[in-house]
Amino acid sequence: MHYLNKTFNIGGVRIDPPLALAPMAEVTDTYYRSLIKELGGVGLVVSEFISAEGLTRKNDRSHQMLAFNENERPVSIQIYGGDPDRMDDAAAIVEAEGVDIVDINMGCPVRKIVNSGAGSAMLKDFDKAARVVEKIRRRVRIPVTVKVRKGWESNDVLPLLKRFEEIGVSAIAIHGRTRSEAYTGASDWAYIAQVKSALNIPVFGNGDVKTAADAIRMFEMTGVDGVMIGRAALHNPFIFRDIRAYVNGEAVAANEIERRIDAMQRYLSKIEGAPNIDKWKLHKARTVIGWFSKGIPHGKDIRTGLQDITAVADVQRLLDRTREQLAAA
Ligand SMILES: Cc1cc2nc3c(=O)[nH]c(=O)nc-3n(C[C@H](O)[C@H](O)[C@H](O)COP(=O)(O)O)c2cc1C
C-alpha cells in the first residue's frame, strides 16, 4: 500500500489523501482553498491565521476571514493570539461557524506577532502554551490541532508536544525550523521523524516539500502521517494532484500551460464573485495569477501583461489573449 492510501483521522475527521495545504496568511482564504480543493488531491485545507483578538472584539475583517465553502471540507481554521483568555473564546467562535477543525498557530516568526506573545513566542513558555491549549480543548467539541516549529531557538519542542497529546490535542503539524531560523536553512526532517516516533497522535510534516518526489521522500524519511505543503502550492496549485500521478507512475501533465491557465481562470471566476471591493480583486488577481504563471511558457508575457491591468476585466482579456496565442502556435 502506498503512502497516499494510508488515510487517518483527526478527532473523527477523515484525512484522505494524507496531504494538507498549509496555512498561509493573505493566501489561503476561502477562494484559494476552494480552488486547491477543486483541482484535487488534497485531504485537508487550512485557513490563513486569524487573530483571536480580532474575532473576540468583533472585528469585521477577522470575521470575514471565517468564511468557507462547503466544497472545502474538511476545513481547518487557524487562530493566533497571545492572550490565553481570548484564545478559547476565539476557538468557540470558530466552532460556531461549523468548521471541522480548529488549529492553533504556534509557529509564526514575525516580530509583531511574537512581541504580542503569539505565534512561535508560545514555544518560549511551555506552561503558558499548555494552558492555552487545554482551555481551548475544554471549550470546544471539534478537534483541536496545533502547528508548531521545532522550537524557539533550539529543537526542543517535543516535551511540549507530549503535553499537548495528554491534553487531548488531535494532531500536530510541525515545520522543521526554529523561530530563529525563520525561513533560512532547511526544514529538519530528521527532527520531524523524531517527533513522529515519539507521539501517538497524527503528525503532519512540513517544510521544503517542493515537488511530488519531495512529498514521497518526506513520508519515507520521517514516517509522518501526513505531508503539509505551503509555498510549492503558490506556484503549482496542482502539486497535490501531481503527487498522486507521481506515485502511480503517470507522466506529469504535458499540457502544463493549459492547465495553469485553467487554474488562473477558475481563480479569477472565484474572486470575481466575491463580495469584496474591486481593488482587492485586482490585487488578488495580480498576485495569484503572477504566481501561477511562474515557470511555464508564455508566463513572462502574462506577468508583463499584469503590470498594465487596471480592472479585473483586463485580467480576463489577458487570459483570453494567451489562449489565442496558444491556439495559433
Ligand atoms: C506567505 C506565507 C504565509 C504564511 N502564513 C502562515 C500562517 O498564517 N500560519 C501558519 O501556521 N504558517 C504560515 N506560514 C508557514 C507555512 O504554513 C509553512 O509552515 C512554511 O511555509 C513551510 O512550509 P513550505 O516549505 O511547504 O512552504 C506561511 C508561509 C508563507 C510562505
Task: Summarize this structure as a short list of keywords or feature phrases.
329 residues, TIM Barrel, 8-stranded parallel β-barrel, globular, binds flavin mononucleotide
Class of secondary structure makeup: alpha/beta
Roughly what fraction of the amino acids lie in strands? 15-25%
How many β-strand runs?
A: 10
- Output the strand order for the largest sheet: 3-4-5-6-7-8-9-10
Q: What average pLDDT do the residues reach?
A: 96
CATH topology annotation of the largest domain: TIM Barrel
**Roughly how much helix do the residues carry, as a percent range?**
40-55%
The biggest sheet, with number of strands, parallel, antiparallel or mixed sense and barrel status, is: 8 strands, parallel, barrel
Provide a descriptive summary of the structure in words:
With 329 residues, this protein is α/β, with parallel strands linked by helices. It is 47% helix and 16% strand. It folds into two domains: 3-247, TIM Barrel, CATH 3.20.20; 256-328. It is built from 15 helices and ten strands. An eight-stranded parallel barrel has the order 3-4-5-6-7-8-9-10, surrounded by six helices. A two-stranded antiparallel sheet has the order 1-2. Helix 12 runs antiparallel to helix 13 and helix 14 packs antiparallel against helix 15 (312-328). The N and C termini lie far apart (43 Å). The relative contact order is 0.11. Residues 22-25, 27, 48-49, 78, 105, 107-108, 147, 175, 206-209, 229-232 line the site of flavin mononucleotide. Flavin mononucleotide binds at residues 22-25, 27, 48-49, 78, 105, 107-108, 147, 175, 206-209, 229-232.
